[in-house]
Amino acid sequence: MKEKFLGVDVSNYTYAQLKENIMSDINERRKSFIVAINPEKILHAQKDADLLHLLNRATYQIPDGVGILVASKMTGGSIRERVTGIDMLLALCEQASLHAKSIFLYGAKPGVAEQAKDRLKSMYPDLQIAGVLDGYEKDKEKVKETINHAQPDILFVALGSPRQEYWIVDHMHELDVQVFQGVGGSFDVLSG
Ligand code: UDP
């Protein structure tokens, strides 16, 4: 279910519903794409029709920003729970470790994804991390081959916004991955 804010769709799912839906996407081999929506992205999309279209192409637009909750309440909507990009990442890592699904961390400066991996491993010892790759690799074929070789169920993409969202839409159909999430600076946060 979605609500629209200045033309941008936002899903009104709670964490619990998102976790359930995304695990079903993996089990039923449906590709899905998660984008975090905040008021800044909604404003950018007003001046950029391509970005608006891109945001609305995502499967789940999570309400990352209290401004969205306020706007939903004011317009009679039902979004009451904030879902941040990093908390969604953690929730998916927890689900992956509980259900034997694997993840891959792509993005951030060399060494950062590796440190984020160590942090996630200490939080979820059973988590299968199929691989990591920094976000400055220039060889596009190598990026694709590395991810396809690792065959993760979930790919977290930390290239900054909207670069990561464009990257996901351009590559999701050629990658052997079910779930894609753009996570901005989350690897930097996890590694720090
Ligand atoms: N980044 C990257 N490749 C690039 C440009 C940026 O991997 O070509 C990474 C950068 O190192 C940082 C993240 O993308 O880890 C962007 O974080 P930022 O907090 O700026 O993103 P936002 O959450 O604002 O979209």
What report would you give on this structure?
With 192 residues, this protein is of the alpha/beta class. The chain is built from nine helices and eight strands. 48% of the residues lie in helices and 20% in strands. It has a six-stranded parallel beta sheet, with helices on both faces. Strand 7, helix 8 (163-171) and strand 8 form a beta-alpha-beta unit. It is globular. Residues 107-109, 135-136, 158-161, 184-185, 187-188 line the site of uridine-5'-diphosphate. Uridine-5'-diphosphate binds at residues 107-109, 135-136, 158-161, 184-185, 187-188. Its EC number is 2.4.1.187.
> What is the number of beta strands?
8
Question: Numbering strands along the chain, what is their spatial order in the largest sheet?
Answer: 4-3-8-7-5-6
| Strand-pairing-aware structural class | alpha/beta
Shape: globular
Give, in order, the helices and strands: EEHEHHEHHEHEHEHEH
Percent helix: 40-55%
Bound molecules: uridine-5'-diphosphate
N-to-C span: 35 Å
Mean pLDDT, as a whole number? 97
> How many independent structural domains?
1
Strand content: 15-25%
Function: Catalyzes the conversion of GlcNAc-PP-undecaprenol into ManNAc-GlcNAc-PP-undecaprenol, the first committed lipid intermediate in the de novo synthesis of teichoic acid.
Protein name: N-acetylglucosaminyldiphosphoundecaprenol N-acetyl-beta-D-mannosaminyltransferase
EC number: 2.4.1.187
Pathway: Cell wall biogenesis; teichoic acid biosynthesis
